[in-house]
Amino acid sequence: MTNDLSHLISRLPNPLILAGAFLVAGVLATPFLFRNRPVGRFIGQVAAFAGFSIMLLVAKVIPSEPTPAIDGTVQFVVISVFKIVWWLAASWLVVDLFHALFKKHLRETRFVQDIVAGAVYITAVLAIISYVFNVPIRGLLAASGVIAIVLGLALQSTLGDVFSGIVLNIAKPYYVGDWVIFGDGLQGRVIETTWRATQILTLSNDLATIPNSLIAKGKLVNASHPTKAHGLTIVIRLEPLMAPSHECAVLETALLSCNRILRTPAPTVAIRTLDAVALECELQFFVSAVENGPEAQNELFDLVHRHCAAAGIRLAPPPESPIALPPRTIRQDPRDMPRRLLENLPIFGPLSDDERIALAPKLMRHIYKAGEVVAEPGTVAQQLSILTTGVLVALQDGGAEEGEVVRLGPGDCFGEAGVLTGASTTFRVKALTKAVVYEIAKDDLAPILKERPAITAELGHILARREAMGKKLLEQHAVHDSHGNHLADRLASRMRDIFGL
Prior knowledge:
- The chain is an alpha+beta fold and 501 residues long.
- The protein has helices at 2-11, 15-33, 38-58, 73-101, 106-132, 137-154, 156-171, 212-217, 244-257, 293-311, 337-344, 353-359, 416-421, 442-451, 453-468, 487-499, and strands at 179-182, 187-193, 197-202, 207-211, 220-222, 230-238, 268-274, 279-287, 364-368, 373-375, 383-389, 392-397, 402-408, 413-414, 427-431, 435-441.
- The chain has 16 helices and 16 strands.
């Protein structure tokens, strides 16, 4: 039987010819046959490489052994070429396999993949030098060490960035897509990490390139881990004419009415200092992501101003400021609140003083306890309501439980949709704290709208702006318009039809 096998092998073509055939199949045929199937193409190339290797072994060509001296120059060249191709093909397959394993995390692992690929190809080159050209690599390595020292001194800064990049990719203090804050105040989202630097997209939409060595040496804060929630602190200075507990309660109410901050972890108010000039408090809160911080701060500053104004609390001047507050005036009579509301609300800006004086007595004052329902879903509001003190919340039935839609603070209005368009509300409005609400009846508002069409247009624009900002209106009918610019015109037209404007 052994003789038969030997006879069969002896009748096969030259193994080197078959090796060349496998090589052609792996390089040309496999990519063509599996053009749209990368997995099949890779398996075919591995199979072709395996056949190529077997044929070399049958021809007694060992890639990991020096090429023996052969009389025929052509045969020596062919064998040497086949060995060079074998090492390069093996390196290519290893690198391709490594890329395939980390394909889903290509951007995050690109740096490590480049290092592995470089190491594999350098190893292949050294093997070719040693096993194909039969050149001792010890002397080559010694010579290359001297060259490396010279290059290291010349490229010290660049090499520092490269090795820092290696450390950063191993330690992984951040990933692509994370929001990072550096010690010098620069912050932004990580776009890409290269051999030398990390690219950051800043808040101003600029691309900042920071050398890896500076990142490795400096202070770095990753605002996206362990969660994306980011904590912020603002400092408020109040005139200390009331008990600190009362003024802190007003600030807590302002935090409670803010829509852009997280409820968990709960926001807090902490007193920093108290003296004859000011009560200084820290308001600590969290936002869903660090880039949402500016909008949340703007809303909170506005709410602090409104709540303090409603409570009769003035802001204190900054420390060591030469500016002194004027003497505190006697608090105005609460019965004068309706007129002051009409003066401060932007929607009633077009009214004259006489019109405000005439409309003020028609405002009705209502007080709600915490937890009390102000408006039920399905009802059509017959009055425009203005919140002056406290916090209200609009809830929408989401099936198993009610979901919070929006929170209202002093100066916010609700009931516009019912009064102006006749639509019923789909929300339940409840008082989160003790709340004071003033109401203007629809019949009392109609003459004003007829005399002042600008108020109608202003209400329409207010509704459109709130829609664009993502704030749900308490009395908005179920209209979802993808063209926000036309919302104000449509609402204004509806108001004109109802009031005969």
